[in-house]
Here is the input.
Amino acid sequence: MLPPTFLTIPQIEREQRAGSKLMHLTALLEYLLRLCNPNLLNDAGREPSLGERINAFKHLFDKIDQVFWAVKVRNAFVHGLEGSTYSDRDARNAVNYLIEAIGVVCAQSAIPRPLVAAIYDDPDVEAQAQKEADARRQQEQKARAERERKAQAEQAQQVRAQEIRLEEVKLLHARREKEAQERKARWQTVVSGLRKLLVLAVLGGALWWAWPTLMTLYKGDRGGAAVVRTAAELALKKVRGKQQQREYAEFINQADAAWRDAEIEFKRGNFRAAEERYRQVIGFWDALNARMAESSTFEELLAEVNTLRRAATDAQAPQKAAEQWRQAEDFRRNAVTARKNGDLAGAKNLIVQARQLYEAAQATALTPAPEPSQQPTPAPDQPPHADEKATEPTPPATPEPARPEPILSERPRIRPREPAIATEQQDDDDPFTISGKEFMQYVTKRVNPILPPQAKQVGVSGSVVVTVYLSKSGHLTKAEVVQGDPLLREAALTALRQWSFRPFLLDRTPTDIKSEISIQVR
Here is the structure.
C-alpha cells in the first residue's frame, strides 16, 4: 500500500498548481528510489539528497538530463527562486518527465507490484464505482429475496394441499392394518435391539481386554517407563553437576543426548524405546561414578607424591640426585597434563613412576658419601713383613640404598618435558587430545547441516557426537560418529566435510590433534 502522505498519479494530475504537482511527483520518485536501495549513503556518510539518489540510479533512465531538468524546474516553482524564467509549458514538460521517471523505477524488481498498482490507481473513482456497485447489488438482492419468498409460499401451499390428500388416503389403510403393523414393528425392534446390543457387548469386551495388552506389547508400559524416567532424571542432574570438570564433558554430552532422545520417544508414546534411552542415562552416571573413583585414586597418589616430593626436597635431592630429580619432575608434570586431558590410565602410570623416582632420589640424597681409606705406613727402622705387604686395608662397606633398578635402566628412553603424554598403552604417533570447546576455536568456516527429509517426516532432530582428527596442516583427516540418531549422522558428516580449520600449534609447532564435538542437526 502507498503511504497516506503520498498521492497517486491520477490524484497528482488533478492538482491545479504546477508547483504542487512537481512537489508530489518528486516526493514519490524519491520514495521509490529509497525502496530500491534503502542503505544508500553519500560520500559524507549521510542520507543522500534527491539529486544524489537520481545520480546513483542514472543507469535506469534513458534521458537522465530530462530528469535533472525536471527536478530543477520543481525547485524553481516550489522555492520561488529569483531569476527563474520557467513557463507553464516547462512545468507541464517537467511533470511528464517525472511521470516517465516514476514509471521506469516502478518497473524495477525491488518495487512491490501491489505498490505499483496503488500508485496508478485512482481511489476516488474506485470508491464511487464501488459505492454504486454496492447499491445495485443490494437492490438485486432485495428483488431476488422477494421473488424467492413468493415462490416458497406458493410451493408451500402446493405441498400442504398434497399432504392433506395423502393423509386422507393413508388414514383409510391405517385403520385396517394398524394393529398388525404395530405388533410386527414392536417385535422387530426388540429383536434388532437385542442383536445390536449383543454384538456391541462382544466387540467392546474383546477390545477392552485386548487393547491395553496390545499397546503394552507394542510400545511398552508407561508406568515402568515413568519409574525409570524418574531414576534417569536424578542421574542426569548428578551428571550435570560435574559440568565444571572438563574431563567429564564426554559423559555429560552423551547423557544429555540420550535424555533428549528418551524424552522424544516418551512424548510419542514409545515407552519401550524411551525406557532403553533412560537406562542409557543411568548407565552414563554409573560410568561417571567409576571414572570419579579412578580420579580419586589418582588424586590420592598425587597427594602422596607431593608429600614425598617435599621430603625429597628437604633432603636436598635436587642437588644430590639431579638426574633422578629431573626425571621425576618430568613424570609428575606429564601425569598432571594427562589427567587434564582425561587420560586417567596414563596419568596413574606416570605418577607411579614419578613416585619411584622421588623415592630413589631421596634415598640417594640420604646416603652418606664414602670416606677415603687410610693405609698404615711402616716405621722407617722396621720394614714391613712380606705378609703385611700383600694385605691391603679395605674401606668400610657403605650400605647400598634400595633403588628401583628397572625404572632407572629405562630412563634414557624418556624425553623430558614432552608436550604429548606417552604411556605403555599409547603409541607415540597418537594425536594430541583437546576438548571440544577448544577445538571449535580453530574452526575458520562452519557449515550448518541440513535436516534430511526422512528425519523431517518422523520429526527427528538433535545432536550428533563426532570424534574428529585434524592434521598438522589443518585438514580434516578422519571423522567417526560416536552417538546420534542414524537418520542424522550422514547429514552431520556431510556438513563437517565442508568445514575449514587452522593448524593447532603446541609450543609453536603444528601438531596432529583429536577431539570430540557435538553437531546440531535441526
Observations:
- Confidence is low (pLDDT under 50) at residues 372-428.
